[in-house]
Design brief:
single chain; 488 residues; alpha/beta; Rossmann fold; UDP-N-acetylmuramoyl-L-alanine:D-glutamate ligase; 2 domains; 7-stranded parallel beta sheet; 19 helices; 18 strands; disordered C terminus; binds ligand NAX; binds adenosine-5'-diphosphate; binds potassium ion; isomerase; nucleotide-binding
Amino acid sequence: MIELHTAAEVRAAEAPLLAALPDGALMQRAAAGLATVCLRLLGRPYGARVTVLAGAGNNGGDALFAGARLAARGARTTAILLARDRAHPAALAAFRRAGGRTVEAAAAGPVLDRSDLVLDGIVGLGGSGGLREPAAALVDRAAAGPALMVAVDLPSGVDADTGAMAGAAFPAMHTVTFGAVKPGLVVGAGRGSAGQVHLVDIGLGPHLPAPSARQLTDADAAARLPLPDADDDKYSQGVVGVVAGSATYPGAGVLCTGAALRTRPGLVRYAGTAADGVRAAWPEAIVTDGRPGDAGRVQAWVIGPGLGTGDEARSVLAEVLATDLPVLVDADGLTLLAAEPELVRRRSAPTVLTPHDREFARFGTEPGDDRIGATRRLAADLGAVVLLKGDATVVADPDGTAFVNGTGTPWLATAGTGDVLSGIAGALLAADLPAVEAAAVAAHVHGRAGQVAAAHGPFIAGDVVRHLPEAVARVRGTPSAGLPDSGA
Ligand SMILES: NC(=O)C1=CN([C@@H]2O[C@H](COP(=O)(O)OP(=O)(O)OC[C@H]3O[C@@H](n4cnc5c(N)ncnc54)[C@H](O)[C@@H]3O)[C@@H](O)[C@H]2O)[C@@H](O)CC1
Ligand SMILES: Nc1ncnc2c1ncn2[C@@H]1O[C@H](COP(=O)(O)OP(=O)(O)O)[C@@H](O)[C@H]1O
Ligand SMILES: [K+]
């Protein structure tokens, strides 16, 4: 599990260590970890041109101390002091002692053009707003050059807690972060500016509170994905009911049903007016063109994709939400629900809502720049798990538990992939996972399936369904093909 901690949590955890350890010890831990990552990235440090963009605070201190360590390994290091009279004094002294030189910001362009690695020590946790001048222009110049762009703690210009970018930010290829991964490195615009994130342990562990949000790894998702065992039959694995698609638009019903089948192939029941299309695509499903009540017993419902928003759709939604079963509501179901939120507020069984931004806004507020905060607020308001889709999908429980998804590919931004996500999550709800985990694991597996599909070229939603078994196998770390083995 990757635990995400806010700036305030990190600062609070640092306080007892700063009091207990010798002066500067924590910064040396940070700088040593940073230098180690830079050495690995450079391969051969001897003669490499390293440029440090150093701000006035401790973030600049980390970068200058790391620069001193790289200089000691033979790198040619130059620092550009962005607030000349206010650089971290001990770090600047160490940098100079190690042979580092400094240049004025005004004369720094040619240095940046020839750098092998640029360290962003402009601002860290103390930053606010976007990059200011002259930092913004220097960062642009560095980005246009050949250098590896490495952010110290977080890319300057990115909000540590939300990932919001109020203006320009350092476009990092790698971010070396200290003590804990900050939410802003994995969510919002910050995700795109952080590149690959490397966590350096500086000993904060025992002092950190329970994380404010988490990200699942493959192992975390695998541990939650249920496996059939010898005592299982098709009913005991959890039966999913799907109400999606329509006679005119059968696609949503086909994709959603297929995703549920391919995630956990026990039994999927379909009820709705896309019955013919679903029957033709998935002979394994049990299909009725009647209402949900005609479908037979299920352990969870998925309702909404391609359903329409007319009276019949509204009545079917009300029927499903009146059951005491877990229900996932998506797409047209969300449009209907936004007009009648009491349908979900009055439920006691788990409900999962899976809006994209525009569907989210129908409930009264835009997601805005703080996607974790906004998702938590809507979940608490409605008493339902909310999964806000995007490049970093956020899942929140009404109790505040939150997950940020780390898998996926922009190729998933294609019609119908949301219907696939609903089917995956519905299968996991029917398998009795806690609703917030069903949603988070579904987002993880869906993203992996997108990545597997993308490896074969541009894909459409049906390809994501087709690649689900391989994605599940990858998440489990098991080979996806091979001779069947007894009991495997
Ligand atoms: N407290 C400690 O001893 C440790 C701190 N660490 C480092 O210290 C950082 C936090 O240090 P500080 O609290 O000194 O703060 P920062 O170094 O992040 O930033 C403070 C300075 O940046 C300026 N500033 C703020 N926003 C700006 C903007 N948008 N553009 C330009 N300048 C801006 C402020 O005026 C101030 O001078 C962490 O991110 C981490 O890198 C690590 O060394 C671990 C130990
Ligand atoms: N830029 C992106 N990068 C990664 N994943 C994305 C991106 N844009 C959308 N997605 C994912 O693709 C899916 C799209 O779902 P949705 O918007 O409901 O589409 P549809 O209604 O056509 O099925 C979601 O799982 C979302 O997280
Ligand atoms: K930084």
